[in-house]
Amino acid sequence: MFGSKEKSRKKLADQVREALGSPDWLESVTVDESGRAILVLLADPADPAAAEARRIESEGRAELVAGVQAVTSILTAQAGQAAPAVPAKTKINLIPQRTPAQVRPADGAAKKGGSLHASGVPRRVSKGARLSDEAMLQGAPSQASEIPPIPGIARILVVASAKGGVGKSTIAVNLAAAMAKAGMKVGLLDADVYGPSIPTMLGMQDAQPKTAASKKLLPVEAHGLKTLSIGYLSDPDAPMIWRGPIVMSAISQMLNDAEWGTPDDPLDILIIDTPPGTGDAQLALAQRVPVTAALIVTTPQEVALADVRRGAAMFAKTAVPVLGIVETMSWFEDPSGERHYLMGEGGGTAMAIKLGLPLMAEVPMLQAIREGGDAGTPAALGGGEPERIFRALARTVAIGLDALETKPAPQIVFED
Ligand SMILES: Nc1ncnc2c1ncn2[C@@H]1O[C@H](COP(=O)(O)OP(=O)(O)OP(=O)(O)O)[C@@H](O)[C@H]1O
């Protein structure tokens, strides 16, 4: 039996469907508790312009239905539809995002769990000063980014892997959790629209983002993180064969139509768990989102390392700085303490040297890491070895990000 609230939401969904003319391409309409209508629209991936037009028109019509508070649409392609060729794109020169000085006072961070900032002589940056101005004075590139920053998000870190199943989402979730535990304001965006796993890894499979008074999506809060995932908005069993421009439309909605933070109180960092691979979806993301830096996740396996080279080349092409490589599933330690290198040994180090990138961490295979992912509680918060490993990774990443913003990497502190 439906409750009366559920009944009226269903009725509203029917009204929205009617307002749109019940076309074949309208796969589903649902209305959540906050009155947000979620439209799933079938679109032809070969014609992204028409798909975008369909989305805009549908959202416009749905918004006019009395009782609808906000609208989110998800573009999806029917299984079996051909993927388009990657459209030629103008190269966008992307330099690290230079936002107003939004780094927390180092002593404040220290109080909450240890400094995450680069060591060195502290430099005083007056409140509101642009780090880019500081950076320019120190010889950093003077070219301005062509991609406008997103208000309310100080920096964006993409976690990428050239291959699926290497443990990328596990690293993204645990890194985010460790940074939050250290006192940073952290968001986690699951852009792995092919197989969103973040809701499960955070134990939030049944969560539905609510709508703010501004009609923007309110990220789901879990384990000290603000999170959004296409998995919160769609039926996990629905066929979703996303392609570059369509993936981009979904990601851009989650990025821009959500209350991550405000210009006065921004997220310190938004971590994006990207879809695996180095194809059109990843390229579109690197070209259109104001990414501060990327982290590449790999296993020590030879075959994965060949892919890492491709991933690094892709980021180089789009001028996104790669902070370094995280090798995961590096070894398994048996109860006697002996390490077994099930996937090869030293591959990540060799690749890091070859590419001239730092090896940010070697994460062993740990039962607690897998169990944490399955149980929805990041192992980075559970104490012991996993917590130590991810805290160290969080610190290394924070230092790497600081170093990008000002050269040489100073400790940023606000003037009182
Ligand atoms: N260091 C680790 N120790 C133990 N298990 C791990 C480790 N890293 C990942 N796993 C497990 O491996 C599996 C795959 O990991 P994960 O989902 O993070 O990979 P992925 O690269 O994000 O995959 P996809 O390509 O599907 O997005 C999960 O069951 C996860 O718990």
Automatic annotation (TrEMBL):
- Kindly give the InterPro entries that the UniProt entry links to this protein: Mrp/NBP35_ATP-bd, NUBPL-like, P-loop_NTPase, YlxH/NBP35
Any matching Pfam family: ParA
> Does the UniProt entry include the keyword Iron?
yes
Question: Where, by residue number, does the polypeptide cross the bilayer?
Answer: none
Q: Which GO terms describe its biological process?
A: iron-sulfur cluster assembly
Under the heading CDD domains, the entry gives:
Mrp_NBP35
Q: Tell me what this protein is called.
A: Iron-sulfur cluster carrier protein
User: Where in this protein does the record put region Disordered?
Assistant: 101-125
